Amino acid sequence: MSPPIPLISVPAAYLIHLAAKLVIDFDPTVAGRLALSTILVIFVLKGSRIAGGIMGVLCALSALVLLVAAIATFAVNAQAAVIFTLLAGLIGAFAAYLFFSPSVRAFQARMSPGGERNVDAK
User: Block means of pLDDT (10 residues each) for the chain, length 122 residues?
Assistant: First the structure.
């Protein structure tokens, strides 16, 4: 069973974003984030529930940080605050998708050690 499309496209877009930042201007912090994010995405796409939970928590925390940044910048730059709020909503929606989506849970269950993937191999 292949992973659900949002489970592929959202992390892929993030990894492409990090890679583009590295090409434009190399930063060791971004390189480390790209390496760790790539490892996490690989485990998520292999069906790891733990990696999915870690990614969900990180996305939820990122959304909260963006909301705080939106509140802090609203007085100075309302347009940036609106953009931060929209991004926080999108990231929060992806976190909720990771935690509550039946298709993600079904994918993780099928890829687990007792799932259908291993039944077909016998």
Answer: 92 95 95 96 96 96 96 95 96 96 94 66 45
Amino acid, single-letter form, for residue 75: A
Token pair for residue 54?
């870690």
pTM: 0.87
Cα-based distances in Å from 75 to 62, 70, 87: 21, 9, 18
Q: What are phi and psi of 29, to 5 degrees?
A: -65, -45
| Interatomic CA distance for residues 100 and 92, integer angstroms | 12
For the record, the structure tokens of 76 come out as 């100075």
Amino acid letter, 87: L
Q: How far apart (Å, rounded) are the C-alpha atoms in residues 1 and 122? A: 16
| Count of CB atoms situated within 10 Å of the CB of 68 | 12
The region, left, alpha or beta by phi > 0 then psi within -120 to 50, assigned to residue 87 is alpha
Provide the H-helix boundaries in the chain: 5-24, 28-45, 49-73, 78-100, 102-111, 116-121
